[in-house]
Amino acid sequence: MAKPFDAYSPAITATKKAIEDREAKLAELKEAEEISNSEERSSEFYYQFGRAQMAIELEIGDQKVAKKKLKKMNQLHKLISKVNEDYDFILDRCDALQNEIGLLKSVASLLSVKSIASNKSY
Known about the structure:
The chain is mainly alpha-helical. 86% of the residues lie in helices and 0% in strands. It has one domain (26-116). The longest helix has 34 residues, at 87-120. It is elongated and about 60 Å long. Residues 12-39 form a coiled coil. Keywords: Coiled coil.
């Protein structure tokens, strides 16, 4: 028997994706903060950052993988620089992301309840 059409399904999926995106951004911000605050982690990050740059320049290994890794490290490097310049930035951004995640989880709960209710009416 085929499932009835659920009009709320796309909204639930989009909301869950938005939550995942914000949680990933929050994790990235926290990682930047940890690297910024730890001399050991900072040294290791910049060592790996330099190795990734050299791998591309010397054409060592798979270029696509090296470029993808370097792109991610460049983004993290920019965040670390921003944290070093303005520590309040990270606190404000983390708070904002946590608030957004909370609101999106509330929306997802409401959509799930409405979805269940609409399926029972069939």
